[in-house]
Amino acid sequence: MELYNPIHLSDRRIKAELVNGKHYRCIINPPANYSTLPIFPVLADNTSFEQFDFKPLNALPDNSFNYFKYRFNKQANVNYHCEWELIHDIEESESFYGLGDKAVKPNLRGRKCILWGTDTYAYGYGNEPLYKNIPYFISNKENECIGIFILNSFRQEYDFGYSSPHQLKIIGSGGIPDIFFIRGKSPIEIASEYAILTGRPKLPPLWALGYHQSKWSYSPESKFREVANTFRSKKIPCDCLYLDIDYMRGYRVFTWDKRSFPAPEKLLEEVSAQGFKTVAILDPGIKIDQKYIIFKEAKKGKYFMLNPDNSPATGPVWPGYCHFPDFTNSVVRNWWADHVETLLKSGINGLWNDMNEPALFNRDDMIQTQRTLDDEVKLNFEGRGATFAEGHNIYGMMMSKATFDGMQKTRDKRPFLLTRSTFAGGQKYAAVWTGDNVASWEHLRIANYQCQSLSISGFSFSGSDIGGFVGNPDGELFCRWLQLAIFHSFCRTHSSKDFKAQEPWSFGDQWTVIARKLIEWRYKLIGYLYSVFFQHTQNGIPFLVPVTLKYWKDNRFKNHHDFFFVGDALLVIPVMEPGQRGIEVFLPPGKYYQPETGKYFSGENHYHIPIGYDGLPVLLKGGHFVPIWPVMQYIGESPMNSIEWWLGYSDEKRCESFYYLDEFDGYDNQMGKFKKVKFIYTKKKNVIHIDILREGSYIPDITQYKLSLFGFAQIMDHIEIDSKRADLDYKNQQITFTHLPETISIYLKD
Q1: Cβ distance 76 to 82 under 8 Å?
Q2: pLDDT of 488-520, one tens digit each?
Q3: Which of 159, 239, 357, 662 is catalytic?
């Protein structure tokens, strides 16, 4: 790393650390009181450091440090308000991925991005800034890659060759350049290591991976009941309904509007009996109201962020003029958590933090804008003290932590929390969605890009508002969006009250039938999605793996931004243009099968693959097992007694698949009550041998297994289950058995 034009340098110059025994951290020119342990939970709890200081720059232990040149533009003051720059000369083959939910193609080269969490209503392609603040990206060169995470919460600008085509410039408005260089053999390994460094989420309850339905707003309670009843009467699966801001009394958090919701506990009990979970919104703004108990407690406890004159910072949001809790203070977080605990006792199952950039309206007309609090607003910052210039970007994450802590106090159920704004490491507390998107084909494509980028940026629990929050989709757009969202970990339809209804039955009978079938596919695949999510919680591998990064050394896939893998077995190829009945794709290496037709496609070839409006935009990769569950209207509707497995032929020598089961909520899985199943597929000459290994004490209710084979019809001689010849339905290429075997052997024709 080269120093150039430095205005102020301490004698220490650089502090270097080895992180988790494999990654290097470089803290540039830290003041004497700079804490190398982050004040806030940005890093995982088990992160380890081996510290060593260097004065001579040429003594640095790793050439990763030479990635940047840097400079300070002025001497830092006591609040770290010192602009700094990092400069990197971009190589010809270099590309960049990350930074979370940027509304552009995943390759950021040629883009300028801003990290300053902002409520950007109806944003368009390339608009900056957006809601989340994730100062991490992956640099890919021709044969090497590196991850870069800058632990700094001030506003940052990333210029990936936008201003100068061959120069990356990162400008920070304050703080210290605290840089983690994350090493790995591939971009996906780097993404995994980054997730491990900043913390993986806990396994959510399975219902959180089901289909969710939301609207601003299902109010009064008769409308809420109507939506619930219609899902069940039309037999469209759904696990979760949402209460937006109108459930509250004048938008006051932790209250109920007793005119619209006179008996909330009874309402929630009734919809729970129908199999629905309920998620309620919580915003940070607390209405200035001397009769409002939450306001009075916060005022008495001095829990609000403060202006420079020590008066509470004020801004207009939904309730009118509000003050805002200082979530950088542990005392305030504990107070908030106590009220979360009380709210959940009414029967609420999950929570949703919105407007937590925090967003403000115009002072005069109360119209939604991109405003937030002033930089000079004061925060506790865990006793250290700071201004909002440093605290703004972490505000949403710290609200998430306070809410998550309250949810953990309430019951022996796993929390589900959704947030709009967050920071690196916030994935430990909350799922995310991509904010106030638009009902357009352009935004369908943007949603695809955003969720891929979020997934490789640590936020694998992510999704978009299906159909768009702003505007009116037609049935075709809504159902094509559903096809994509089936394969996102968070699957929710949400729309504004300013536009038409957007339930699955809102577009006419033809589209209702199609939407039902697509949502049913979500539930057929949910066991596989749960297993992929479990793997993410264990090893950090992203839930969505972009084709461009999986085959990062192969220039043939450099521009394949539309396609991604979920796990190793499913390649998703969504349709994102109106009127199209299929997709043009150049397939990655391997053998692929269209599950609904059984058609075979050979990798490294171009195809036009038909995908109907009610079809699955996915291909099964040979050699991997995919569990298919029976359709249910909601998780836990009835015991799951049967399961189907998909398996396609592959001539690869070895493939591994994983399947995970538990009780789908609670924490008995941490005591060994789970079932992990590992399938090892090996091919030797004319025999495919599959070892099935299992771990854990959980005993599922499954009494019937069906194995559906793809690509074996012309080449298979017979099949053996635990060394006994099995009866095969040759016409349908299926075999049924009553227990999970230890081995499956497929003998091929000579």
Answers
A1: yes
A2: 999 999 999 999 999 999 999 999 999 999 999
A3: 357
Assess whether 357 carries a catalytic annotation: yes
List residues bridging with 607 in a β-sheet.
585
584 token code pair: 């043009």
Closest to 421 (Cα-Cα) out of 401, 406, 448: 401
Look at residue 191 and tell me whether its pLDDT is greater than 90: yes
Higher-pLDDT residue of 50, 374: 374
Whether 365 is catalytic: no
Question: At 50, which helix (H) or strand (E)?
Answer: strand 49-54
CA distances from 353 to 10, 676, 692 (A): 42, 33, 42
pLDDT at residue 669 in the model: 95
Distance of CA 489 to the CA centre of its chain: 7
The secondary structure of 607-653, three-state, reads EEEECCCCCCCEEEECCCEEEECCCCCCCCCCCCCEEEEEEECCCCC
Q: Which DSSP symbol is given to 558? A: T
- Asked whether 456 and 187 are in contact (CB, 8 A), the reply is yes
Cβ proximity of 166 and 90 under 8 Å? yes
Cα 97 from Cα 556, distance rounded (Å): 18
Nearest to 657 by CA among 627, 689, 628, 634: 627
The pLDDT, as a whole number, for residue 58 is 53
Cα–Cα distances (Å) from 239 to 214, 281, 519, 636, 720, in that order, read: 11, 17, 11, 10, 39
Structure tokens, 473: 């989709």
> With bands split at pLDDT 50, 70 and 90, how would you rate the model's confidence at 53?
low
Residue 687 and residue 710: Cα distance in Å, rounded? 16
pTM: 0.96
User: C-alpha 115: how far from its chain's center?
Assistant: 18
| Catalytic-labelled residue, pool 354, 390, 520, 614 | 354
584 is catalytic: no
Whole-angstrom distance, CA of residue 580 vs CA of residue 573 = 13
**Residue carrying structure tokens 């990197």:** 88
| Paired residues of 359 in beta bridges | none
pLDDT value, residue 7: 36
Distance CA 160, CA 109 (A): 5
H or E element at residue 748? strand 743-748
pLDDT band of residue 444 (cuts 50, 70, 90) is: very high
Beta-carbon contacts of 624 under 8 Å, excluding residues fewer than 6 positions away, are: 567, 568, 569, 647, 648, 650, 655, 657, 679, 681
Per-residue pLDDT tens digits for 612-622: 999 999 999 99
Q: Distances from the Cα of 226 to the Cαs of 229, 234, 420, 499, 636, in angstroms?
A: 5, 12, 27, 19, 22
At 379 the three-state DSSP class reads strand
Burial of residue 436 (CB within 10 Å: 0-12, 13-18, 19+) is buried
Predicted confidence band of residue 4 (pLDDT cuts 50, 70, 90) = very low
259/29 Cα distance (integer angstroms): 59
What end-to-end distance do the CA atoms of the chain give, in Å?
61
Which regions of 515-599 does DSSP assign to beta strands (E)?
Answer: 544-546, 564-566, 570-572, 582-586, 591-593
Residue 553's CB is within 10 A of a number of other CB atoms, namely: 13
Per-residue model confidence as pLDDT tens digits over 368-377: 778 999 999 9
Q: What is the pLDDT of residue 50?
A: 85
User: How many CB atoms lie under 10 A from the CB of residue 273?
Assistant: 8
User: Which residue is it, tokens 């220039």?
Assistant: 555
Q: Which of the residues 94, 436, 562, 568 is marked catalytic?
A: 436
Q: Whole-angstrom Cα distance, residue 241 to residue 348?
A: 10
Among 572, 531, 528, 529, CA closest to 550 = 572
DSSP string, 198-224: H-PPPPPPGGGGSEEE--TT--SHHHH
Does residue 56 register a pLDDT over 60?
no
The DSSP symbol for 669 reads: G
User: Which is more confident, 50 or 657?
Assistant: 657
Q: What type of residue is 482?
A: L
* Separation of alpha carbons 203 and 223, rounded Å: 32
